[in-house]
Amino acid sequence: MIKKIILSTVCGALFMAVASAPAQAQFYLGVRGGLSSQNAQMDEIKFDKNSAFLYGAQAGVKFLGLAVEGQFYRADHDLLGENPAMPEVEQEMSYYYLGVSGKLGISLAIVYPYVTVGYGTYSVNLKDLGKKSDAAFNAGAGVELTLGKIGIFGELRYVDFDLDIENMAWDFGGVDLHFGLNLRF
User: Fold this and answer.
1) CA separation (Å) from 93 to 20, 38, 148?
2) What does the DSSP assignment read for 63-87?
3) What pTM was computed for the model?
């Protein structure tokens, strides 16, 4: 008899949680901006660390401490590098990210600290050399402050990806700083 009561209680609680999930889920759309800081390297040429403005948008859904978010952002860099055998090398680079990130955090009254892991496609366009894409992971941490239907967030994200463009091995990576605004529905 006690097993039936416990089983019924657990099943009832699970049913109530599943039934109330759509009512507690928060959908949101947002914009982001920040600073992309890339450490680029091509074969033996190591480029100076270059920072550039990044901008983009996101759409997601948050339920309790878990969020899933689709993201797009872009940054344009002017890379400057040196190799002992060659003079100064300049390269213009645009890169785009299109992917999905999961966030896991603690939903406090108005503050949501979280860690994030994402996976998506990084597309790099190097002036006069071509464009190439490859998928890679990224990871980071952030915090969001919720004021009614508006959320303001800041996030640090580590990215690292490699591409082969015009038979040259390129390695990109660095820490991106994101700030943004989400509107909840």
Assistant:
1) 47, 10, 39
2) ETTEEEEEEEEEEEEEEEEEETTEE
3) 0.79
Q: Which of 137, 146, 136, 150 is nearest to 114 (CA)?
A: 146
pLDDT in tens, the chain (185 residues): 666 676 566 555 445 544 444 557 899 999 999 998 888 888 777 777 778 899 999 999 999 889 999 999 999 888 777 666 666 777 788 889 999 999 999 988 899 999 999 999 999 888 888 888 889 999 999 999 999 999 999 999 999 888 888 788 888 888 999 999 999 99
The 3-state secondary structure of 128-146 reads: CCEEEEEEEEEEEEEEEEE
The pair of structure tokens assigned to 39 is 């450490």
What are the beta bridge partners of residue 38? 50, 174
Backbone phi, then psi, for 10, in 5-degree steps?
-65, -45
Location of structure tokens 């999905």: 100
CA separation for the pair 44, 105 (Å, rounded): 41
Report how far residue 163's alpha carbon sits from residue 143's, in angstroms, rounded to the nearest whole number.
31
CA-to-CA separations, 25 to 1, 28, 100, 116, in angstroms, rounded: 36, 10, 18, 18
- CATH no. of 25-184: 2.40.160.20
From CA 52, how far away is CA 31, in angstroms rounded? 17
> Contact 82/44 with Cβ under 8 angstroms?
no
